[in-house]
Amino acid sequence: MALEGTLEASVSTTGTGSTTVEFAFTVTNDGSDTVDLQFSDAAKAEFVVQDEGREIWRYTDGRMFAQMLSTDRLEPGESTTYDAEWTDPRPGRYTAVAELRAQEATCEARTDLTIED
Fold this sequence. Notes:
Blueprint: E1 3-13, E2 19-29, E3 35-39, E4 45-51, E5 54-58, E6 70-74, E7 79-87, E8 92-100, E9 108-115
Antiparallel strand pairs: 1-2, 2-7, 3-6, 4-5, 4-8, 8-9
């Protein structure tokens, strides 16, 4: 199984000054065989924001997800994207990490981001 991940982070500020970071974690099947990603709940990916290695935000903290078995099938060369949103972040320079929460597959991606004052 050959999974490749990329993570994009888009920072936006509304007219009222509220800042939001939108994450898009894309997982691509780089192998030659079909991959079935099996999940035990509705949270298919974890997103963590770190400040010099110290965790400051985690997507799943304080959230509840439906407990349901599901499968995402990726044919060779096919991709799927998992999204998350971080609202009202503090200004700073951070590293975001996304990790697939599939039962028998791993995939991770990182990106740096800056939240302006």
